[in-house]
Amino acid sequence: MRLHKTFNIKIGGVSTIEIIIAFSILLITFSGWIVLYFRLELATSKAESDSKMMSLSNSILERARSASKIDFDSIISSSTLSVTDVDELTKDLNVSNFYVRLFDWKHAQESKTCEFNGNWLNTNIIKGIDLGSSTVATDIAAIGNYVYITADSSTASKADFFIIDISNIDHPSIISQIDTGPGLVGVKISKGLAYVGNSSVNSQLQIIDISNPYSPYVITVFKLPGIYSDGSTISNSIYYSKNKIYLGTKKSQIAEFHIIDVSNVYAPIELGIWEANTTINAIWVRGNLVYIATPDNEELKVIDIHDSQHIFRLGGYDAIGNSGSGNSLYFVGTTTYLGRTQGNDELYTLDTSSTTISKINSKKIGSTINDIISDGKTTFLATSDTTKELQILSIANFDLPAKAVALDCKNNILFVALDSSDALRIITPL
To answer: Is the dihedral of CA 95, 101, 106, 107 positive or negative?
Structure first.
């Protein structure tokens, strides 16, 4: 009997220990699951937070990218955003510790990084440089610490390409000059090269190496293909976009519009032509569309160049009245500024958001508009008026020594090229 009772006690003792062990294991397992659950919750919360931050960052960047697609020039420096010009088509953006470079692949607009602010009723006009007797400016480009001026002279042997150092804006100075031929009509700058339109029938396009601004030199001379014996097959307008030059000539024996591939700057290739049957005064490229200002009744023509072998007219705009030729162009977003020669209203703003162009507004200026620059709020006009060569629309007029032929800008500084040997004026608000 005692043995039997003792046996029962042992069995009971073993069962109690097993239950305690089982509960302990269950408790440990449950605790582990709780810890794991909270860690997963924390990780999920952190992931969601990181995702929101990344989404916010992407949203901010995407807004900048979207803005650049609409208007590349709208990306400007501010207290939280610094911008450096790399060339006419490239800008460096530095936002806090994040660094990105944006390219205007779609429209490849000229890089006029202007921030027109301050009091332009009161300005500081800095007298520039003297190109020499009988030499007058024809175009201007400002990039970095330099201004590039093309010129024409009654003496063919005189210099027609000038580089001016503006690192000290109050004391600009010519640091180099070269003679390229009979004269130049326009200039575009990109990546250490100057693409210039020449008034020679044997070298309508020239490419100048400006990597050393103190010693520029012509590396390529390009003659337009075709058979012509007239003296009018010369450059009259030029535009650069994505390794291509868009060259317009005076009315000639061959087509007046030319697309030239300059991917190999030492061996340019003509890709396509279009017969305008009129002089081409200004060119602006936006994607696969090219806008052309002409002296034709249809002052603004739009051509489709998506297939350079089959270029065709897509649309255009005929301003009211028979007087006044299309003479200059500028774009801000989908708004086109069309400048005309003296006649009826010389300045037109047009909605070019679609191929059906419509008039937004027009204004009588009273003189030929040779060039236009605008940020959408302040508009500068280079005119032929002998008393108001530079006009700031609805703000002020400036009397300069000669008619203004071209404009460019850098930040809040305006550069004016004059039809004179006294060829440069630098203007800033006080």
So the answer is: positive
Count helices and strands in the chain by DSSP H and E runs: 1, 31
Nearest to 316 by CA among 334, 335, 294: 294
* Bridge partners of residue 340, in order along the sequence: 326
Residues 6+ away with beta carbon under 8 Å from 278: 251, 256, 294, 295, 296
Adjacent-strand bridge partners of 331: 336
CB atoms within 10 A of CB 376: 13
Radius of gyration of the chain (CA): 33
**Predicted TM-score (pTM) above 0.85:** no
Q: Identify the top-confidence range among 114-123, 133-142, 151-160, 260-269.
A: 260-269
Count of other CB atoms within 10 angstroms of residue 420:
19
Mean pLDDT of the chain: 82
Cα four-point dihedral sign 173, 177, 182, 188? negative
| Alpha-carbon span 104 to 207, nearest angstrom | 22
Helix, strand and coil percent figures for the chain, each rounded to 5: 15, 45, 40
List the Cα angle 274/204/132 in 5-degree steps: 140
With 50 as the cut, is the pLDDT of residue 5 above it? no
Per DSSP, 224 falls in state P
Query: Are 379 and 346 spatial neighbours (Cβ–Cβ below 8 Å)?
Result: no
Determine contact, residues 414/126, Cβ cutoff 8 Å. Answer: no
Please, which residues bridge with residue 164 across strands?
Answer: 147, 174
Residues 343-369 have a mean pLDDT of 91
> Mind listing the pLDDT tens digit for each residue in 378-395?
889 999 988 888 888 754
